[in-house]
Amino acid sequence: MAFLLGIDGGGSGCRAALAERSGRILGLGAAGPANIASDPKGAKESVLAATRAACADAGLASLPENLAAGLGLAGANAAGAADWLSEQLPFAKMRVETDAITATLGALGAEDGIVAALGTGSVFTLRVAGRVQSFGGWGFTLGDEGSGAALGRALLARALRAVDGFCEKTPLLDRLLDDHGGPAGVVAFAQGARPADFAALAPLTLSSTDPAAQAVWQASVADVARILHDLRRRAALPVTFLGGLGPAYGAALPDLPQRPARGTALDGALILAREAA
């Protein structure tokens, strides 16, 4: 039997789906982060671990030899990253794209639209006449507007500004400083933290009535709104919000025409796998 493998990998984790050529899912698996730009070796191991878990879930003792894989991975737009990974993996056929592409394919199906994928990182896509353009997705260092990582970084940066007297101290900022051992501890944390470590602080901006949390959240909503209004000037299409933070941004921007996702990023990865077969 010929098999399809879909992989959806980002800064927080990696998911795999093993399916028949008909599309029927046989097994699912999950593993750790899979950003092939920031941690290529770790991404490779996560892809393989999630694949093995999906095969085991399907009752297979080993990877099938005739496996066609579609991979949507964070960092696949970094120069040489996709080619390097393709050489490292044992799949018979494969196609590697950014996770934005697979998320768009899964969310929109055959329709045109705008996708805002907001999780640990962020990326925006516009599909017009079947052609997908990607915006943002440049990674935590240079972009990721509206992402969980950006929210966490903004909270910590605000805490340090409060220490300097440039903004109001609040109970939340005091708590963050205490949790990290003061300003020096915040700086030490930031020097070694990964995007997922910053993103772990993002829920504080959603659940807190603290003025600092609200200020960080409203600034981030404004960033996302500017991007989406710009994309809608190019094509007046509805927006589909994805990712762990997607529903929160959708609720914060009720004036934007919105459409629910038709499928998942794993569905989009399986579409890639079918094209690669």
Q: What is the structure about, briefly put?
A:
45% of the residues lie in helices and 21% in strands. With 277 residues, it is of the alpha/beta class.
Layout of helices and strands, plus pairs?
Blueprint: E1 3-9, E2 14-20, E3 25-31, H1 40-57, E4 67-73, H2 81-88, E5 93-98, H3 99-108, E6 113-118, E7 122-128, E8 131-136, H4 148-163, H5 171-179, H6 183-192, H7 195-199, H8 203-207, H9 211-234, E9 239-242, H10 246-252, H11 265-276
Parallel strand pairs: 1-4, 4-5, 6-9
Antiparallel strand pairs: 1-2, 2-3, 6-7, 7-8
Account of the 3D structure:
With 277 residues, the chain is of the alpha/beta class. It folds into two domains: 121 residues, ATPase, nucleotide binding domain (Nucleotidyltransferase, domain 5, 2-Layer Sandwich); 149 residues, Nucleotidyltransferase, domain 5, CATH 3.30.420.40. Helix content is 45%, strand content 21%. The chain is built from eleven helices and nine strands. Strands 3-2-1-4-5 form a five-stranded mixed sheet. A four-stranded mixed sheet has the order 8-7-6-9, sandwiched between helices. A hairpin with a 3-residue loop joins strand 6 and strand 7. Helix 3 crosses helix 11, helix 4 packs across helix 5 and helix 4 crosses helix 9. The protein is globular. The chain starts with a strand and ends with a helix. The model has no long low-confidence stretch (mean pLDDT 92).
